[in-house]
Design a protein that fits this description.
It is built from 13 helices and 2 strands; from the N terminus they run ααααααββααααααα. By secondary structure, the protein is mostly helical. It has a domain of 229 residues. It has a two-stranded antiparallel ribbon. Helix 1 packs across helix 13. The N terminus is likely disordered.
Length: 343
């Protein structure tokens, strides 16, 4: 009887345990790359931990870096749950950032209290509209959303680069002119860069988890993702739900762009995203499409990226080591899923 009682608890913790095991495995495999060149992998990882958790400022930087990853991972989760692949969250992030800057100049003269909410709505709408394009091409014409979303990532970066160097240029600085101060997100801890978009990301994860588990829309979405033919047979509006899910997924990624502009840079710089969208894919897979676990795993990967700077300063090891670890993680995750399906 106890086994039946404990089984749900074990299943709830399984994603975190699996993710932890895969991270350790990726660290071990990556360590094999360091040994032949005379670097102690344990010492390198110790420097990463020190850089990520050695001070209050380091921990807040972990949270700052984790915020866009949380939102892009939620974007991926929402699309994956209805059986579609959203590999375009990086491009949707850029569109959200572009909309945030465009409204953040406040050329429409919006009152101060209304500006920030308007910027957030504009960012969500821009990301959703950008995601709607591959959604329509997939659902109406059968185009591969994988290819279309990847191609649109490059298009979004191109548009941002044009704006930075063209209509919105600001002197010789590779960034646009700044937004007005009324469009700045409030800082949560004085003296750090941690801003209110972190709370937006946490709220988004909680809302998405509730929607997926406790609403009719979430039930239909999950059913479509598991068996689209059965969903159609049951009379569910498959095309409508898939379109809404993909558009909302783009909106979540757009909010990541909103936070980077309104909370961190206060303009649109060149190279806004170092790959938040692709890291979000890793997080979504490690979390096994669970929004709550995605928050924890995003924080862990953010700490890994932040701590790699300390490792580079202390030992001269390039931060690209973290990219190798993430690549190994992806391979391990995909291998694990393949083995589970065969079993």
């Amino acid at each position: 009887m106890n086994a039946h009682v404990d089984a749900p608890a074990v299943n709830r913790w399984r994603p975190l345990g699996l993710a932890a095991g895969l991270v350790v495995a990726s660290m071990a495999l990556t360590g094999l790359v360091l040994l032949p060149i005379g670097i102690n992998p344990i010492a390198a990882y110790a420097q990463i931990l020190k850089g990520a958790f050695g001070s209050v400022n380091a921990v807040t930087e972990d949270l700052v870096y984790a915020t866009p990853i949380i939102l892009t991972s939620l974007s991926v989760i929402l699309a994956f749950r209805c059986g579609l692949w959203n590999l375009g969250s990086d491009g949707q992030l850029y569109l959200g950032a572009i909309a945030t800057v465009g409204l953040g100049f406040n050329r429409f003269g919006l009152p101060g209290p209304a500006l920030l909410p308007a910027m957030a709505v504009a960012a969500f709408a821009a990301g959703a509209a950008w995601a709607a394009v591959p959604a329509v091409l997939r659902l109406r014409f059968g185009a591969s959303e994988v290819i279309v979303t990847i191609m649109m990532n490059f298009l979004a970066v191109t548009i941002a680069t044009y704006l930075v160097g063209g209509p919105w240029a600001s002197g010789i600085t590779p960034a646009t002119a700044p937004i007005v101060p009324e469009g700045f997100l409030p800082v949560l801890i004085s003296g750090t860069r941690l801003n209110a978009n972190f709370l937006v990301a946490i709220a988004a994860a909680a809302i998405l988890s509730f929607v997926l588990r406790r609403t009719v829309f979430g039930y239909r979405l999950r059913t479509i993702g598991q068996n689209v033919d059965a969903a159609r047979y049951a009379g569910m509006p498959v095309t409508k739900i898939r379109f809404l899910s993909f558009a909302c997924a783009g909106g979540l990624a757009g909010l990541a762009g909103f936070g980077e502009v309104a909370g961190i840079y206060h303009n649109l710089p060149n190279g806004l995203s170092p790959g938040f969208g692709f890291t979000g894919i890793v997080v979504a897979l490690l979390a096994r499409l669970n929004p709550v676990w995605a928050v924890i795993i995003a924080f862990a990967l953010a700490a890994l990226n932040v701590g790699s700077g300390g490792m580079q300063r202390a030992m001269g090891i390039p931060v690209s080591l973290v990219s190798i670890m993430e690549a190994v993680l992806i391979l391990l995750v995909l291998s694990t899923r393949m083995l589970e399906r065969r079993a």
